[in-house]
User: Fold these one by one.
Assistant:
Number 1:
Amino acid sequence: MFPTIAANSASEYRQLGLSYRQQGRYQEAITAMSKSVELEPKNLMGKVNLGWTLHLVGREEEATNYLLQAIYQEPLKYSAYNALGIVYLVDDKLINAVLIHTLAVILKPDNEVAYYNLSLALHQLKIYPMAINAANYAVKLEPNNPHPLVSAAINYWDSGSRNLAQNIYRRAIKLDIRYQNSIFLNHLQQAAFTEEQINITKQILSSL
């Protein structure tokens, strides 16, 4: 049930859905966002918001459907590519993730999200030189975010440059001291790291 105050227009349903999502009330958020898309099917952000929220609850196939609709509707909108690329990444569709994030970079060359996720996908594909380049560029674009540094570190580590991986990881610790805590590293799952990538990060930490 929606509160009495909110729901008449597509815009109001979108705002209500975002509010629910911020509160972690995902099912209610999806209901509100679905209504906004029903009322205003040509609104791109309505579909992107709905697709992303479906992804957050693990409904990847439905998320993909709405995000593809957004891309077909407006092929030059990089935000839809970013969201779809992450859906593909966590759904282990790595080639699709690389393709979509590459298109996102073409559309927005200073797209730190796309470069970061490219580095994670390419790491899983063991294409380390390209993954390192992507991670380092994400670091350049977003120097205060530890996530691209950690991605660079695991790529250097698996490519054999272990001293460099350790030095890069120390930079992440300088940004956020919690990266010295092995248990804290489990949160990297929320940043699209796989369990294997988290374990590699823990290896780097234990080697310092």
Number 2:
Amino acid sequence: MELEEVVNEVLKRIKPSEEERAFVEGLMKELRELAEEKITELGLKVKPYFVGSLAKDTYLAGDHDVDLFLAFPLETPLEELRKKGPELGKAIAEQLDSYEIAYAEHPYVRARYKGVSVDLVPCYDVRNWRDVRTAVDRSILHTRWINENLRGRNDEVRLLKRFLKGINAYGSEIYVRGFSGYLAEILVIKYGSFLDVVRKADFILRQKIIDPADWLRREPEIALRTVKRETEEDRPLIVIDPVDPRRNVSANLSWEKYGRFYFKSMEFLENPSVRFFFPPKKPKGNYLDELRKRGTALVTLLIDAPDMVDDILLPQLERSARGFEKALEREGFRVLGWNVGRKEKAFIMLELDREKRVRVKIKPGPEFFTERGRNFYRKNEKVWLIGKRLYSEKMVTESVVDVILELLDKNQVSLGKGIRNAVKEADILLNYVPRGLEEEAYLFLSREKWNIKG
């Protein structure tokens, strides 16, 4: 298919129908009226705002999650907002189908209504970036800026979002580290269309800094501080938030996910196909077959992690996995890769070159005629010389599981601070995972999880 044919075919599948639009508009009208009614009943000075893709008309067909922000006056103390916000959210949600209290920076209400997820989030009624007090406050400003600047390119955003979803690079959550919907909208506004964005994948990376609201001229000191901080963090992109010069919109975007976008954009332009937007499902493989084929060993730690959100838990799991990698390589095992996540339990998977090491460890020592040499001679049982350097040997544990237990017992693994005790109590499995992790283990061992050519 030609490029334009592919784009048109995809648009037919992702653009909401008139019936769907009517449903969404009716739903938002109902929720607004219900919110205003409860605000009046409770005697609050709160304004309801819809934010996110529904409010910006950049949502994909079939994706109707509602974000209704309950904006309190700026003079409201934070503790009062944290108390009255969820109370108002619950009062609204009690008129819906179901709800639960969820937690981010402060509590909010997550409800269901007519088959749709509805988040009821307290925030401040901010006018500009200087008013921002909590992480969610900017969402009102984001929605306003996109609606003022998108100028009819809503379908272009839809195409870019669907492309990013299809290549597994969409979502700024810590366990994805891809492109957020807001970043996709900014890129379309900046470069003009979906095709312009994918054609400029290389240019965008080399340009590095994107400043849609001209903050580097309007607020140079603050914007330059943002650029310096994000440059030191080695981000692939720095997109200065058009509503706040202190923030990089693409702060969570990883090099891996930009690299995926980079190569898939090139492939799509060379060989246009709907499969980039809607990839065919691959048959599931067997992780045990992969292990036999590779001749490697799989160690999995199952961890009863403390109750914490993924944005906090996953970086600590990653730090712990890197700690195991370094500690095991010091002990003579080669770590070929690691993987972390949370299903029923948190987990760390390590692929190793083998499950046992030789029982004898050769220990090089200092030159024999030094003070350190004399100490080495006294401390070690079996000692010999090669030239002027002393050597010794000691018997060591063979099994990688026993090595890990020893390392943990001696505090010789650098672990995430908040999960240190939980990792020490983890179940350690060798060449086996429970049923709920079988697909994850296969994706990890086969590299399907990361393979950008697959």
